[in-house]
Amino acid sequence: MMKPADMRNTARTDNSNHIDNDVDGLIQLFNQCFFDTYNTRLVRGDDEPIYLPADNDIPYHRIVFAHGFFSSALHEISHWCIAGQARRQLEDYGYWYCPDGRNAQQQRAFENVEVKPQAIEWAFTLAAGRTFQVSTDNLNGAEPDRAGFTRKVAQQLLTYVNTGFPKRAALFLEALHRNFSTPSLDPVYVEECVK
């Protein structure tokens, strides 16, 4: 089975070298929302992202995002919001890693499991007042259908807006709206954003 969202490589590539002052606030916001209830912290990483469950050395779960990038943090949080209780007890939710350089079949499988987390990430990005781009994350492999994948993610985002987000995603979405003073996502607004 392909690892959903390819946890290690789906983080957005941020080509800028500037420090994003919102990252520390995002970490604090996530930890305020979820540490007490889910024993989980958002952690700035130096390298590739990874989810690490609590162990004998560290008594809490860690969502480690790539290179301190805000977009990577939102992406990794979106995966955590989908992962069930059993998956959250396993490193990287128990999925195996399929690196960049995927063939066409592997890329389709990657995109199929990325639709829901990237739709949630898109909602988080809008709630943070930022611009979202899907990640097909296969620079050295088969050429992805970026436009087609974007349409699938957009449709999933509209489905979530109309029928509701997963519980943890909905809680974090509300916290982001409050923190960044952005309006709640309504179908009309989201329709405009996904065009």
Task: Describe what is shown at a glance.
The protein is mainly α and 195 residues long.
Provide structural commentary:
The protein is mainly alpha-helical and 195 residues long. It has six helices and three strands; from the N terminus they run αβββααααα. A three-stranded mixed beta sheet has the order 1-3-2. Helix 2 (70-82) packs across helix 3 (104-127), helix 3 crosses helix 4 and helix 3 crosses helix 5. It is globular and about 45 Å long.
Q: Distance between the terminal alpha carbons, to the nearest Å?
A: 32 Å
Strand order in the largest sheet: 1-3-2
Q: Helix/strand/pairing class, anyone?
A: mainly alpha
The dominant shape is globular
State Rg: 16 Å
The number of helical segments is 6
Largest sheet: 3 strands, mixed
Assembly classification = single chain
Low-pLDDT stretches are 1-17
Q: Tally of extended strands? A: 3
Order of helices and strands: HEEEHHHHH
Write the layout of secondary structure elements.
Blueprint lengths: L21 H17 L1 E5 L5 E3 L8 E5 L4 H13 L21 H24 L18 H18 L3 H14 L6 H7 L2
Parallel strand pairs: 1-3
Antiparallel strand pairs: 2-3
Helix pairs in contact: 1-5, 2-3, 3-4, 3-5
Which descriptors apply to this entry?
3 strands; disordered N terminus; mainly alpha; globular
